[in-house]
Design goal:
Layout lengths: L7 E5 L4 H12 L3 E6 L2 H13 L3 E6 L5 H11 L4 E4 L14 H29 L2 E6 L12 H20 L5 E8 L5 H10 L4 H10 L9 H12 L10 E4 L9
Parallel strand pairs: 1-2, 1-4, 2-3, 4-5, 5-6, 6-7
Helix pairs in contact: 1-2, 1-8, 3-4, 4-5
The structure holds nicotinamide-adenine-dinucleotide.
Pfam families: adh_short_C2
Keywords: Oxidoreductase
Protein name: Glucose 1-dehydrogenase
Length: 254
Amino acid sequence: MLKLGAKVALITGGGSGIGRAISELFAAEGAQVHILDLNPAGAAETKAAIESAGGQCEVHICNVAVQEEVLTVVAKIGRVDILVNNAGIAHVGNLENCSVEDFDRVFQVNVKGAYNALFAVVPVMKTNGGGAILNLASIAAVVGITDRFAYSMSKGAIYAMNLSVARDYMADNIRCNSISPARVHTPFVDGFINKNYPGKEAEMFEKLSKSQPIGRMGKPEEIAKLALFLCSDDAAFITGNDYPIDGGFIKLNN
Ligand SMILES: NC(=O)c1ccc[n+]([C@@H]2O[C@H](COP(=O)([O-])OP(=O)(O)OC[C@H]3O[C@@H](n4cnc5c(N)ncnc54)[C@H](O)[C@@H]3O)[C@@H](O)[C@H]2O)c1
């Protein structure tokens, strides 16, 4: 029996990394997947992988930071049973290395993008009798990490937004949870290593792998399995929670 049969799932940032793994697994479990992504090439690759495995996927090229774009896409889709707020960008630097442009860029995508998707989708879920929402937070929301000022700020906002939405829409049969991964090996991680540590890529990769007590980074597929559980009816009794998936990062780093 498919875990998401007949469900419509909207996944932001489904064109790469964690969002791609979630899109592929949700489609394999019967969901009609709608990807909202800025990157047409990445989104097309995810769609091709889903369709070649027999699943259903539509791509909507959309900047989640722009409310009008998100509202237009959601109106076109019409019904949404599952929302995964996954699109996000990185920034490496402390407070003094964070310009107002850096701050605004991270805020626009990571915080306002999630708000825009929630703002568009929650009324649709209310009308349809409920739904499941999953927000991608991060261990950076709850642990002080060196040089992650803007990024941590944005993920702390997700952590709080998750609680607010879970509380306000419980009576509408909408469940809302978040996942907080430690490092997961995706283009997001490769991108910020290449950009911020030129010439030291292998050393940084090793260092970031070892910062999880388990000794490696997570795999996107591992995040997708937790996402599937939380968005499926198996998790019907779970709302308003955050789930670290972190190789021991939060509790075993001593
Ligand atoms: N990789 C990690 O180590 C890690 C750890 C904790 C949390 N996260 C979070 O997980 C999420 C996914 O991370 P990932 O590593 O898979 O990233 P990724 O860079 O591999 O993929 C992000 C996707 O989001 C899309 N995107 C970016 N800005 C967008 C916008 N404005 N509108 C629409 N789409 C946009 C990109 O085109 C890309 O397809 C992010 O929210 C990230 O903060 C990642």
